[in-house]
Amino acid sequence: MGRKPKENKHLKKTIAIFCEGESEVHYFRMLQRKYNAGNVSAHKIGLKIKSLGGKKGTDLVDAVKSDLDHDKKIDAEQVYLVFDRDDLTNEQIQQSQSAAREYGYTIIFSSINFEIWVLLHFESFTRSYTKKELYDILSNKQHFDQDYQSFKGGDYDKYLFDRVAIAMKNSEKLKINESAMATSDPFTNVQCYIAPIFGRAD
User: Fold this and answer.
1) Rounded Cα distance, 60 and 25, in Å
2) DSSP class of residue 78?
3) pLDDT tens sequence across 146-175
4) Could you tell me which residues come within 8 angstroms of residue 51 by beta carbon, excluding any fewer than 6 positions away?
């Protein structure tokens, strides 16, 4: 009499991470490799903005919904949306939070941009930075040792693969308040979701 196949009681949920920018896609794919997370996939949002006025926060959420509706190969039980403040107003960020809640998506957000989280892999801080200041600092020899703006969107493995635990530790000083996402600067909540997504954050 043949043995019954064992039930897998620990099947991991399928997770899709949708990113506004290439840097974020490359970073989360690095984490996917680091933690051997075959249940996690990272995608660039298929966003097409026709107006010259730029994007609105809800545009990003709606674009993810459209991607999921049209790409049947993406079958996710949990959906994360990764984007930056950039030129979004506080009201637009709050609108995106409401829209994401409606669809059951979780927002991973950084202000002023994703490089706030990247810098935490090297040092702790509590002050705000402009985009230019962040790029200048990350270009230093102690960080990427090259023009970061030109590198942006490149392969992070060489620089950040073994520094995630440092970023987690450095982020503790930021005292993140999720309800103040729209008004806090600096702000990043990447650290809040690495362990829930990948099962660990070392």
Assistant:
1) 15
2) E
3) 999 999 989 999 999 999 999 999 999 988
4) none
> DSSP for 80-121?
EEEEE-TT--HHHHHHHHHHHHHHT-EEEEEES-THHHHHTT
**Which tokens go with 136?**
């200048």
- Give me the mean pLDDT over the 65-80 stretch: 89
Q: Give the C-alpha separation, 121 to 74, whole Å.
A: 30
Question: Taking the C-alpha atoms of 105, 90, 60 and 127 in order, what is their torsion angle to the nearest 10 degrees?
Answer: -80
Retrieve residue 12's tokens: 């991991």
Residues with Cβ < 8 Å from 124, sequence gap 6 or more? 169, 170, 171, 173
CA triple 177-135-192, angle to 5 deg: 25
Single pTM value for the model: 0.90
